[in-house]
Design goal:
alpha+beta, 2 strands
Length: 147
């Protein structure tokens, strides 16, 4: 089994056991956002976390080791994504990416927002015109160094 196959097994087992991402996050002991990324193959679990997930989802024993392997990050294809929800994030970056860049550089200077030292929260925001998706992202600013 490889990591992509394990991700598919995790998704099947999650449905079979009728578990939410929040419930799996509680098993792992981290946020639902980080835990979901981990179970989709983008983060590394500890042995204890991997064993707990494998037990809860009744996955093969080899999954414990695979969940501890440092992943090849980036789960999207290099072409424009076709899934409508993921495409909207692509569209958001296409429209507002330069705005994010300009405002971050004006406020912080020449550097980047880290996706390593990073937090995210996704929640439902009730609205009489239709509920909204609220995503808060917080990444450490890393300035470019001169040498």
């Amino acid at each position: 089994m490889n990591r992509q196959e394990l991700t598919q097994e995790i998704l099947l087992a999650k449905r079979r056991h009728k578990l939410s991402w929040q419930q799996l996050a509680e098993i792992i002991g981290h946020s639902k956002e980080w835990s979901t990324a981990a179970l989709l193959g983008q983060m590394t679990l500890t042995k204890k976390q991997a064993q707990a997930v494998v037990a809860a989802l009744e996955l093969p024993d080899e999954a414990v080791e695979l969940l501890q392997v440092v992943p090849y990050k980036g789960s999207l294809p290099t072409s424009v994504p076709t899934d409508p929800l993921i495409y909207r994030f692509y569209e958001l970056i296409n429209v507002y990416g330069t705005t994010f860049k300009e405002l971050i550089h004006e406020e912080f200077g020449d550097g980047i927002m880290s996706a390593i030292d990073f937090n995210m929260d996704l929640s439902r925001q009730p609205d009489p015109n239709g509920d909204r998706v609220k995503i808060t992202m917080s990444g450490k600013f890393l300035p470019y160094k001169t040498y």
